[in-house]
Amino acid sequence: VPTILSTCISKQQLQTVKDRFQAFLNGETQIVADEAFINAVQSYYEVFLRSDRVCRMVQSGGCSASDSREVFKKHIEKRVRSLPEIDGLSKETVLSSWMAKFDTIYRGEEDPRKHQQRMTASAATSLS
């Protein structure tokens, strides 16, 4: 049974994902992150999400959410291995934490009320 992660993403979904990562990088989310994670996301965003290659993969139907997740995981494994031990946390714990944060960014806001509040605030500021 195919999961939602294994289905190909559309150009619109890719743009939504790019927007979510840009919002995170702009500090517009509630996701708490340290500098190392932010740098990893910045690199992933610039090198992978914004690449012409990914756009071509999406256009040809050859890019899934799990592909994106796997690229991020490979990307951060190298980074985390090179980090000094952080407050006694194992590198596996750091990897798990970073992947959970990635998943949260990728999926976007889970609480529709937060989205509604943001839309209302956005509408209010555009009226003033």
From TrEMBL:
GO cellular component terms, A-Z: glutamatergic synapse; presynapse
GO biological process: dense core granule exocytosis; positive regulation of exocytosis; synaptic vesicle exocytosis
Region ranges (Disordered): 109-128
Signal sequence, renumbered to the chain: none
Positions of transmembrane segments: none
Compositionally biased intervals (Polar residues): 118-128
PANTHER family on file: CALCIUM-DEPENDENT SECRETION ACTIVATOR (PTHR12166), CALCIUM-DEPENDENT SECRETION ACTIVATOR 1 (PTHR12166:SF6)
Protein name: Uncharacterized protein
